[in-house]
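Notes from hallway chat w/ T.B., transcribed later so I don't forget. T.B. wanted the structure written out for a chain they're using in a teaching module, and asked if we could keep both sequence and structure tokens in one place. Agreed to drop them here.
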Amino acid sequence: MYPTSVVPYLDLRPVVIDALWVGILSTIKSRLAAPRRNDYYGRGTQVRRVPAAELAAAEAVLSGGGPLAERFATQLRDAPHVWRLISDDGSYELRISTTAEVRGVPRAGWRSERITVHAQPGDRPLELWLDVTIAGIVGIHGRSLDGQPWPAEWSIDPRELDVVRAGAPRMALPTPAELRVQRTHAIEVLETWLGEPGILRGKRGMVAIEPPVTAEAAMAFEQAQDFALPDAYRDLLLVANGFEVGSVVVLGTNDAYRLDMPGPDRLVIAPPNEDGALVLAPTGEVRFVQLEDPTSDGRLRAPDLRQWLRQKVRARPTR
């Protein structure tokens, strides 16, 4: 259905998890791990703003979706630049807003239904859909249905946009009340896993978790990565497949990956930054591998994952 070269972008691999770091992620990736096929930011380019036609379609998709939908629409309207990815044959494009992420959004994300519009002039059929990733970064996906390259300049008939709005909202976004319930549950899950009730008091609006995985899925991940999971991390996966506490992020099975560097086995468990990557050792130790490190040994940050998070929460506000 889609060009082979496009498929990996639809799920967005770990290097795009925190889109605010897009300027340095490709360098980090090449230094800390073996190159991965179709590295998004290795092929994407930065361009000015979301094109007017795509923005109009996105706003129509989000119309009537409530406060969260309006925040996503505002993000797209206000972004002075976006990242653009084009498939090899030019028939597919993806734009990701990177300048105004919506904090406090659960990490699972959402995807809209696909809509068909016609590019004017020429009445060319296009398919568009929205994707909300970690921390509320909005992506606009589109492909041409006639197999020709995506139009460089185009517009949508206002009557067609009216039809899109009439069927909106086209994303199942939660209400603020539903988000509060999700965050309360996330706090209960993390505090139970940490074994310290009340440690996240005052951070109710800053906590989000992924749904847990099964023991079989955790074992499959362990085998796929050829990495012996420490007990604390395995216990976490069984109650939350990754979490956020403000700016503190621990990745689950969808995004964590084994670090491919000389030295001991390490699992990257947080989005890398300009300094390096936070990793987990099979012993359970949390370490940090810097860009200039010749091996994956890394610097010890905590003897285990639970203690590391306790330190992070107590050290400063996690914003």
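Follow-up for T.B.: The chain has two domains: 7-166, 176-315. Might be a good example for the class.
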